Amino acid sequence: TMVDTRTDIPKTPTLPDAQTVTEVTHWTDRLFSFRVTRPASLRFRSGEFVMIGLMGDPDPKTGKQKPLLRAYSIASPSWDEELEFYSIKVQDGPLTSRLQHIRPGDQIILRPKPVGTLVHDALLPGRRLWFFATGTGIAPFASLIRDPQTYEDYDKIILTHTCREVKDLEYGRQLVETVRSDEMLRELIGDGLDKLVYYPTTTREESPRMGRITDLLRDGTVFRDLGIEDFGPETDRAMVCGSMGLNLDIKEILESHGLREGANSDPKEYVVEKAFVG
Ligand code: A2P
Fold first, then answer.
1. In the chain, at which end, N or C, are there fewer CB atoms within 10 A of the end residue's CB?
2. Ligand 1 atom closest to Cα of 245?
3. According to the model, what pLDDT value does residue 260 have?
4. What is the pLDDT of residue 12?
């Protein structure tokens, strides 16, 4: 991976809601993560998203520029002094074709209004918390697995991540490794970190566990691998973030086990959000 760290970071914003890029990491030719300065007043709950983007091209008639914004889950925890995001690169994507070229010192637009359903408040108390992600859908869980509340509220946290190839898992793999070994996090979270189970799968390249998470749930492989009996509405809670297909398929599996979809105003057993960009 290629890590670009902060160089000369200009102090004067030149855009409304501007934040400065502090670090960019390119994971594959289609995936990158970046960190930006955090507005002093920004409070958010782990799992929420914000609108971020760049100034669009000038309108050919008026010459006016409008911001080009997309929803991005905040991947960093709420105690972090910077904000982290994880993104796909789409070569003809209006935003990501340009966003993939940001460097430390550049500015992006960040609307400081965090929202979203993948928050602890949207779930009733339970014993096990499942995070189901495909692709960049791991971003909100990157925040939640660094949040002390996750370990205070549950006995076991299971993060599943399904990607096409092994290299697509690397951001999540390193994140989990850091979470497990980082001294500062250990101090913050305590022995709770031992409760974190990481379950990566690939669908188009050989790896220790192959297949879509949905198929591995339906045929019982996940439960056998983890030594768990099954889902139950008394014990299990889930947050889902991936492609439309994953979201619908997991919903069906969870509903068939008696889990119901919750919301901020009406907490239940699981919540869903689509992975936004790409
Ligand atoms: P697959 O390779 O079988 O399509 P993408 O790169 O298209 O966003 O997909 C990311 C990962 O999500 C891939 O491993 C893909 O598997 C998987 N995936 C796509 N749709 C579903 C689904 N409905 N249920 C589970 N996994 C899915």
1. N
2. 23
3. 98
4. 54
Residues of the chain with CATH 2.40.30.10: 2-115
ipTM of the complex: 0.98
- Nearest atom (ligand 1) to Cα of 278: 8
Among protein residues, the one with the nearest Cα to ligand 1's atom 21 is: 246
Domain with CATH 3.40.50.80 in the chain: 120-274
Q: What is the pLDDT of residues 71-86, one digit of tens each?
A: 999 999 999 999 999 9
Q: Which CATH architecture has domain 120-274?
A: 3-Layer(aba) Sandwich (3.40)
Which atom, in ligand 1's list, is nearest to the CA of 164? 14
Tell me the two tokens of residue 6: 């902060």
- In this structure, are residues 124 and 153 in contact, taking their beta carbons and an 8 Å threshold? no
Share of the chain above pLDDT 90, in %: 81
- Where helices occur in the chain by DSSP H, the ranges are 96-99, 139-144, 148-153, 170-181, 183-189, 213-218, 221-226, 244-256
User: Quick one: DSSP state of residue 229?
Assistant: -
Pick the residue whose CA is nearest to atom 24 on ligand 1: 246
